[in-house]
Design a protein that fits this description.
Blueprint (H helix, E strand, L loop, with lengths): L1 E5 L9 E7 L6 E2 L4 E6 L4 E5 L4 E6 L6 E3 L3 E6 L25 H6 L2 H9 L18 H10 L32 H16 L2 E9 L1 H18 L6 H14 L6 E3 L2 E3 L6 E3 L1 E3 L2 E3 L2 E2 L7 H17 L12 E5 L18 E5 L3 E7 L2 E15 L5 H16 L2 H5 L2
Parallel strand pairs: 12-16, 16-17
Antiparallel strand pairs: 1-8, 2-4, 2-7, 3-6, 4-5, 6-8, 9-19, 10-11, 12-15, 13-14, 17-19, 18-19
Helix pairs in contact: 6-7, 6-8
């Protein structure tokens, strides 16, 4: 019996997917739930497993092809048997023994890790795994490649006189196709610039109260909750209070209507090997500080391993971007359509400021709020950012809801 291998049901916001890589070829035996291929969408890489065991009898799409939701990609013959390998003649010399392979370690590798290992001809056993139970993850391989010394070029056979036209170095070029994620990022950023009336308002916040609170409780917090206390949870909870106070910042325009949300799903911009992704913290009002920190940590790990799902990045009513982790002192973030606002955090840097008539040195951070002026007035935007500032400079407000 022939069984169809189909594209998984894609989210409403994802029209199609690109076939990234086949793991099996026609005529090869496959086991049930064995990964057959990878699909790249605008947001994530999807692994497509075999629905039944059998032989991959027909492949209908090639690497690089575009496929729609539920489109048939291949067919599996569940009654066929894989072709047996021909037996060598008795008098033939036995082939040289192959190097032993740690099959358990190979089976534990994800498709992304296996591809990197194969492309660069690496020995997985030589790389230290930092995943669960010592499992090798994509970040481990990339770190190993970055640290791997580049062999020095062989010296020339004989010294030659330097030509007058010799340049200082190679001037090569290379072209690489844009990934689906990068194309989608470009499309959405241009869309935001063309369709929204984007303005940015700035403020600065004294981080000393939050830093002192974190220093006082970080060890006990980590011991109690099993996760480190960072700054993002403070900003996420401060954003919830400000969004409740100024609902237009948490709304969006659809046709000639304004759609207001009575919940706060906050996207947190996270860097990944494929580019910037924005997984969503759901219902932040109902999350504890530990919930926020643990979820962000999980998102960071999944982004590094290429394991974020479509559900992780679908939706969101407001976004927070922290360029400060890369050293940015000030920037103007771009909206994440259809959202109406995005908060930009930046590097905390000691600066002289005036407090109670005296010049003191404080750890200061610039904040930027980009907003769609079609729906958010300047007064609301400024007061929203002031509400964030006040909550961070007086964290007790987050507990008392004032």
């Amino acid at each position: 019996m022939l069984v169809d291998v189909k594209v998984p049901v894609l989210a409403e916001s994802i029209p199609d997917a690109t076939l990234l890589d086949w793991k099996k070829g026609p005529g090869e035996a496959v086991a049930r739930d064995e990964i057959l291929l990878e699909l790249e969408t605008d947001k994530v890489v999807l692994e497509v497993p075999a629905p039944q065991a059998g032989v991959l009898s027909e492949v209908l799409k090639s690497t690089g092809d575009i496929a729609l939701s539920q489109e048939v990609l291949a067919r599996i013959d569940t009654e066929a048997a894989a072709p047996a390998a021909a037996k060598p003649a008795a008098e033939a010399a036995p082939p040289p023994a192959a190097a032993p392979v740690d099959e358990s370690a190979s089976d534990a590798l994800s498709p992304a890790v296996q591809r990197l290992v194969t492309e660069h001809n690496l020995d997985p056993a030589a790389i230290t795994g930092t995943g669960k139970g010592g499992r090798l993850i994509k970040g481990d391989v990339l770190a190993y490649l970055d640290a791997k010394p580049v062999p020095a070029p062989a010296p020339p056979a004989a010294p030659a006189a330097k030509s007058a036209t010799t340049t200082g170095g190679a001037r090569g070029e290379r072209r690489e196709p844009m990934s689906r994620l990068r194309m989608r990022i470009a499309e959405r950023l241009v869309q935001a610039q063309h369709t929204a009336a984007i303005l940015t308002t700035f403020n600065e916040v004294d981080m000393q109260p939050v830093m002192e609170l974190r220093k006082r409780y970080k060890d006990k917090f980590e011991k109690t909750h099993g996760v480190r206390l960072g700054f993002m949870s403070f900003f996420a909870k401060a954003a919830v209070q400000a969004l409740e106070r100024y609902p237009a910042v948490n709304a969006y325009i659809e046709d000639n209507e304004i759609v207001y949300h009575d919940y706060q799903d906050i996207g947190v911009a996270v860097g990944s090997p494929r580019g910037l992704v924005v997984p969503i913290l759901r219902d932040v009002a109902g999350m504890s500080f530990a919930d926020v920190e643990q979820t962000i940590t999980d998102f960071g790990t999944k982004a590094r391993d290429g394991a974020l799902t479509v559900e992780d990045m679908t939706g969101g009513t407001f976004t927070i971007s922290n360029g400060g982790v890369f050293g940015s002192l000030l920037s103007t973030p771009i909206l994440n359509p259809p959202q109406s606002a995005i908060l930009g955090m930046h590097k905390t840097q000691e600066r002289p400021v005036v407090v109670d008539g005296e010049i003191v040195v404080r750890p200061m951070m610039y904040l930027a709020l980009s907003y769609d002026h079609r729906i958010v007035d300047g007064r609301e935007a400024v007061l929203f950012l002031v509400a964030i500032k006040e909550a961070i400079e007086d964290p007790a407000r987050l507990l008392l809801g004032v």
